[in-house]
Specification:
This protein has 5 helices and 8 strands, in the order βαααββββαβαββ. Strands 1, 2, 3, 4, 5, 6, 7 and 8 form an 8-stranded mixed sheet that branches. Strand 3 and strand 4 form a beta hairpin. The radius of gyration is 16 Å and the shape is globular.
Length: 169
């Protein structure tokens, strides 16, 4: 049902439609464009989703883009560690799609990288994301107290991690 694939130009309008929702963007980093324009979608499709900083995929339901999932590569001494991140359009929340997409991303990473540790950060006000991580074998490692300021409020950020079984030789 859920598949991951590279973004393509046909996803442009869908990205704009889904990403222009405050309920989606309130949990994302401030670097995520608001409002999300066709120029932002075009950049993401052509350059941003696959660059030296990470690899990101369209999350698709029956071929239709419903969100994004990806990994930000660690560097130097963190080269065997990477941060995962994801978002789905609001109509697709609560159906298990994010959990399935993360499971597929982890499988892709196991088969195509030498990553040893995956981690993710979730705001305290996003328990659904925490459940997605826990369903995929992530363990809460700690809470970063008042680490994030969003819309004039400080929030705790929960750090989750999962150790992959890979051979780095």
């Amino acid at each position: 049902m859920i598949t991951l694939r590279a973004f393509h130009s046909d996803d442009e309008a869908r990205l704009v439609e889904l990403a222009n929702n405050v309920n989606v963007t309130r949990f994302l980093r401030d670097q995520f464009p608001r409002p999300y324009t066709t120029i932002d979608a075009r950049y993401w499709i052509e350059e941003g989703s696959c660059d030296r900083h990470g690899q990101h995929f369209a999350v698709c339901l029956h071929g239709l883009c419903i969100g994004s999932i990806g990994v930000f590569w660690g560097e130097r001494e963190y080269r065997y560690s990477a941060e995962v991140g994801y978002w789905l359009g609001q109509p697709y929340w609560g159906k298990g799609y994010a959990s399935e997409a993360l499971a597929q991303l982890q499988l892709w990473l196991e088969e195509n990288t030498q990553l040893h540790r995956l981690y993710a950060l979730a705001l305290e006000c996003n328990p659904a994301s925490m459940r997605v991580l826990e369903k995929n074998g992530y363990v809460r490692e700690g809470i970063l107290r008042h680490a994030v300021m969003k819309d004039g409020t400080f929030y705790d950020e929960h750090l989750f991690a999962r150790v992959q079984k890979v051979d780095i030789s």
